UniProtKB/TrEMBL annotation:
GO terms for molecular function: ATPase-coupled transmembrane transporter activity. InterPro entries: ABC_SsuA_sub-bd, Solute-binding_3/MltF_N, SsuA/THI5. This is Putative aliphatic sulfonates-binding protein. Belongs to the bacterial solute-binding protein SsuA/TauA family. Residues 74-290 form the Solute-binding protein family 3/N-terminal domain.
Amino acid sequence: MANHALLRRGRNISTFSGLATNLNTILRLCQQRLVKRFSLLFAVGLGLSLMVAACSAPTSVAPNSTPTASQNRVVRIGHQKFDPFTLVKARGGLEERLKPLGVSVEWTEFQSGPPLLEALNAGSIDIGRTGDAPPVVAQAADAPLVYVGGGAAKPQSSGVVVPANSSIKTLADLRGKKVAFTKGSSANYLVVKAIESGGLKFSDIKPAYLSPADARSAFEQGNVDAWVIWDPFFAAVQKQKDVRVLVNGQGLAANRDFYLGSRSFAQKNADIIEAVREETQMVAQWADANPTEVVKILSPILGVEPAILDVVTKRRGYEFETMSDEMVAEQQEIADTFFKLKLIPKPVKVEEIVWKPS
């Protein structure tokens, strides 16, 4: 960048006829510019060094003291296009709840669970909400994550769809067909359980691993035979396209929300996690009692028709509960299934990464 800047300076100088031939003048100007740049870089480097030293220096904290607003902690929350955190963010109460703890909130949206957990693993976010399968895949990859909570079962919020005029009438008809879904997502587990219920094996279908947006495009263009997807994409395709639902998750997959945190963040910030849980639970109770208001809030935010959101809100909840034995057992079933199918490289014990605040 310095060379380009000097060339531009040289071009500007060349426009003045009196200086165009004065090489010594140009060299002197270049030298002065480099000196100034070096001085600036040195000053910035020194400033950064002092900042790092200040941040690294041990601080004196009174025993049993609690964080104050002056400490300016931040919680970075990942959410998907439509999940409980989307509504929590829209309501705006979490920021107010966290102010007494000296905590601000940063929000990041993801299209699906796998990239959200990648960000959590990379330290880009602190807490995130996903479907049921992504945490299993992350645990098998030794990601330093912990379950900090779960939601209510919502099996009707995802399903397997085909075009209305498709020759596929039953799950057994999926043999040899190309089925689109997001790899490592809750849809991945649903498709496994669905085809098993139809008497097939996972190897009997042709998986097309696509994001929701790409999967919808492939589905509409006839490049895949079936699509396994969750709300609001599921409700949208039901409303907007001429499709048939072969099966939803009822009796196959609970399709719960799960809340994950980085292990290091959870160990140090139990107060923040509890505040986030309490606020989400309060919003969940409000949402259950006010479905029409939920639709009014989320429709312009998500760019989804109110009629579609009305369907979505009626078949899901927004809870953030502590992990139960039932939730752990469901997740263990997913883990065992994925290992059997070699979708994860090793067996895992879900209970080992369930966060237990001290």
